Write the structure tokens for this entry.
Amino acid sequence: MKKTKYYFAYGMNTNPEQMSLRCPTARALGLAKLHHHRFEFRTHATISASRGQVVEGVLWEITPSDEDALDRLEGYPVYYGKRTVMVEHQGQHFRAMVYVMDSTMLPAPPNDYYYQTVAEGYDKFGVSQHQLRVARHYSTKAYRKKFSYTDHDISKFG
């Protein structure tokens, strides 16, 4: 029997079709919650510590080969790092691996394809879409504020 571990997905890897392409031996356990964190977009999904907030996602059971495939996809250890967190699933607590971006990455909205892929995964597992909408709104607002140009400013660049 292969050694397995738990993986908490909150972004694109909540989508079972996406996961089956890269991790054919992964097994979805279903909706899970990570307490005291918030969901964010920095072009791609990430999480950060935030007392009193909850991130919903999907708990997966993965093999070492699944984890290797996820590491390649997530750009580990450069684009995403890994942490171990405690998640709640069906009233039980599980120690799970999670990918997290460096906190120096700036908020930025996701592209439509990425957002829709995540939303489809959320629908399949009953994950609330609310955290997606809030994160997209916040990241769009922060991005526009950071990179706001007027027509006059743009005309300077020819």
Remarks:
- Residues 5-155 form a domain with the Hypothetical upf0131 protein ytfp fold (CATH 3.10.490.10).
- Confidence is low (pLDDT under 50) at residues 150-158.
- Residues 31 and 152 are 48 Å apart (CA to CA).
